[in-house]
Amino acid sequence: MDIKSTLSKPPSSSWNWFLFAAPSRFYFLAKKIIPLCWALAFVLGAIGLIMGLLYAPTDAQQGDAYRIIFIHVPAAWMSMLLYVAMAFWGAMGLIFNARLAYRLSNSIAITGALMTFIALWTGALWGKPTWGTWWVWDARLTSELILLFLYIAYLSLYSAIEDQRKASKAASLLAIIGVVNVPIIYFSVKWWNTLHQGASITVTKTSMQSTMLMAMLIMTFAFWAYAFAVILSRVNQKTLDEESHTDWALTELKRLKATI
Amino acid sequence: MIWNSFSDFISMHGYGPYVWGSFGLTLALLVIEVIQLRLQRKKLIAMSDLT
């Protein structure tokens, strides 16, 4: 069903030495991990929300508006982390000419864009009651907006090029160049004078009360588990689609069809 | 539990629209992403007949 990918399939023997680079191996490993990720996402999400919304104390300065932190910070962290992962797998794809790496890179993009949007949206809703404005063109906010544009550019470039291999190469290159933006986002609050507050936690110190901190960290792991679940599901779908000419993929598709 | 009443919780001491606007949209977006993935999966499995 996907002719262009069939034509560009490398001989499997050339990259079997990467243990899980064989599409079928990766597929069945991911298939086992996905339900675990969902379970973790739900359990941690529930605990994080209960702690953050019901038990964490009201902030002395910001009142209850600060509770937005429980999704704002995890989403913002994920937006940067996923971008780096997307660029990393793009680079792996370019270096090893491995389609599974491209698939990973590509599957991260949508979730990364979503996390970036959530970070910006919750930031706006947090900014209004605490700063008095939805948006300012300061370093942190602007560089995060650029991150969203980078994700959108990656996705548009990928879908605009007909040949899948060329599309993957071009999009990966864009992702790699755009990586310079990630440290800019992270350090923007140090490098420039901005309205945005500095890092709430660093390796050596934290300015947060313990229930708040715990809730935020648990929510971060919940977001992490969620991202793993959806991204691995997307990779597996792409694998089945692109490998549908192979015996194992056909067998799996037939099996899935029978279970519906 | 830090809230005195349910309405206290919902109003978030006046910050309700901001807090629920954040949590609500986030939840909605994640649900949409999951639904989209499921639909795509269904389509993929249904189309596998063609090969």
Describe what is shown at a glance:
The complex is a heterodimer of chains A (260) and B (51). Chain A has 260 residues and is mainly α.
Keywords, separated by commas or semicolons:
heterodimer; A: 260 residues; mainly alpha; 9 helices; 0% strand; B: 51 residues; 2 helices; rod-shaped
What can you see in these coordinates?
The complex is a heterodimer of chains A (260) and B (51). Chain A starts with a helix and ends with a helix. Chain A is mainly alpha-helical. The radius of gyration of chain A is 21 Å and the shape is globular. Chain A has nine helices and no strands. Chain A has one domain (32-197, 207-231). Chain B has 51 residues and is mainly alpha-helical. Chain B contains two helices and no strands. The radius of gyration of chain B is 19 Å and the shape is rod-shaped. Chain B starts with 5 loop residues before the first helix and ends with a helix. At the A-B interface, helix 2, helix 3, helix 4, helix 8 and helix 9 of A face helix 2 of B.
Main beta sheet of chain B:
none
Please identify the oligomeric state. heterodimer
N- to C-terminal distance of chain A: 21 Å
What integer value in Å does the Rg of chain A equal?
Answer: 21 Å
> What proportion strand of chain B?
under 5%
Tell me about the biggest sheet of chain A? none
Number of domains of chain A: 1
Strand segment tally of chain B: 0
Order of helices and strands of chain A: HHHHHHHHH
Spans of chain B of 5+ residues with little confidence (pLDDT < 50)? none
Mean pLDDT of chain B: 92
Name the helix and strand elements of chain B from N-terminus to C-terminus, one letter apiece. Answer: HH
What is the SS-derived class of chain B? Answer: mainly alpha
The number of helical segments of chain A is 9
Total number of β-strand segments of chain A? 0
Q: Which word captures the global form of chain B? A: rod-shaped
